[in-house]
């Protein structure tokens, strides 16, 4: 869910890079709705297991912060992780 992803973004130091395909899709939705500033670029890779796209999230916009306030305090909505390049993860 893109809004839970937005909620998690407020707890990480930006900018971050996202490579997991599902999370890149979430970044795409949040970018299209104006809730974040990000860049999504295609990667030139030859390995079949590597994601063909990379997203870099630069910041949460004022509209994004307002949406987070509307969501209120979400009690551990999702117990998933953010996956970063080079095998780094945020729990």
Description:
The chain is α+β, with helices and mostly antiparallel strands. 33% of the residues lie in helices and 24% in strands. The protein has 3 helices and 5 strands, in the order H-E-H-E-E-H-E-E. The protein has helices at 2-9, 21-32, 62-71, and strands spanning 16-18, 36-42, 53-60, 82-83, 89-90. The strands form 2 sheets. A 3-stranded antiparallel β-sheet has the order 1-3-2. Strand 4 (82-83) and strand 5 (89-90) form a beta hairpin. Helix 1 packs across helix 2. The longest helix has 12 residues, at 21-32. The chain is elongated. 18% of the residues are buried. The model has no long low-confidence stretch (mean pLDDT 80).
Distance between the termini: 16 Å
pLDDT averaged over residues: 80
User: Level of helix content?
Assistant: 25-40%
Number of helices: 3
**Globular, elongated, flat, extended or rod-shaped: what is the shape?**
elongated
What structural category characterises the helix and strand content? alpha+beta
* Beta-strand percentage range: 15-25%
> What is the number of strand segments?
5
Largest sheet: 3 strands, antiparallel
């Amino acid at each position: 869910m893109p809004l839970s992803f937005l909620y998690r973004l407020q707890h990480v130091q930006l900018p971050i890079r996202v490579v997991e395909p599902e999370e890149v899709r979430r970044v795409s939705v949040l970018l299209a709705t104006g809730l974040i500033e990000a860049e999504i670029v295609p990667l030139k890779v030859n390995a079949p297991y590597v994601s063909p796209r990379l997203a870099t999230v630069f910041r949460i916009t004022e509209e994004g912060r307002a949406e987070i306030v509307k969501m209120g305090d979400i009690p551990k909505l999702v117990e998933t992780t953010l996956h970063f390049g080079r095998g780094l993860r945020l729990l």
